[in-house]
Design brief:
four-stranded antiparallel β-sheet, alpha+beta, binds aspartic acid, eight-stranded mixed β-sheet, 22% strand, Glutamine Phosphoribosylpyrophosphate, subunit 1, domain 1, 321 residues, globular, single chain
Amino acid sequence: MNNYTLVIHGGAGNIHPGMMDAALEKEYQLALQTALNKGYQVLEQKGTALDAVAAAIVALENNPLFNAGKGSVFTKKGLHEMDACIMNGADLQTGAVAGVRNIQNPILLAKEVMLHSGHVLLSGNGASEFAMSRGFAFMPDDYFYNKERYDQWVDIRDTDFYQLDHKDDNLKGTAPNPDYKFGTVGAVACDHQGHIAAGTSTGGMTNKRFGRIGDSPIVGAGTYANDATCAISCTGHGEYFLRAVVAHDIACLIEYKGLSLKAACEVVVLDKLKKMGGEGGLIAVNAAGDYEFCFNSAGMYRAVKSSKGEELVAYYGQASK
Ligand code: ASP
């Protein structure tokens, strides 16, 4: 039997010691641990990597601490437009949705797209029509209301600026606030059969407009899985991750250049992406069950659990295990 591993993230950014009091730290700890347990249970019961990824992401989407599902940020029009993608490494099957509204768990809609639409990526109203045709329930707008994110949006809604989950002093816009972060969520898993999968879900960026779509639902940019190389879920300033085609670039370094998972992640995140000015990070696994956390920001909400006995929940500092 293959080693099995689940890795999750809840966003990267300027997450540093001192930014959270003990109570908030405990909330994040509990949220990450709960999602980790949900996904890991699937792997323990000999479920697939794909189902483990979906289960972990559903738990994160249902928690308003994260910018995905229930906790999604506000757009310029005061709405919530969500992006998600899921990919199966065994056969490269993929499903994704972009700019979807009122869906409780966009990752489940992405999975439905993969299994039942005959397409890979559906957007906006068309994605809603598909959701309706598959019997998905629609949540009212106030299900997604969150005072903190509302206030963040009110601060900048009359400007043309967009920003991350928290105020960002690296993006032009509002008064500098060093405690910004990217609150996207993601999961990657390797199951007992040695198959891998990846998923990512996000509300995108506060005050985004014109149907802006980030890297998360784009195959090869924010999300990618291929049993032959790796499964990756990214979080960060999406425009850079799109331009650098981050997730697929890592897979290419492994496939064509023979780099290790760790070396490939580091080349892309710590060197190429950083030189472009792209801040953020990612989680990765391969079919042997090895995993990596890699980020060029101060921190990343992250957690791992594996059949080798590895277990960790962390937020700050060194990406090393
Ligand atoms: N990558 C996401 C986006 O640009 C944001 C994030 O990771 O929080 O939409």
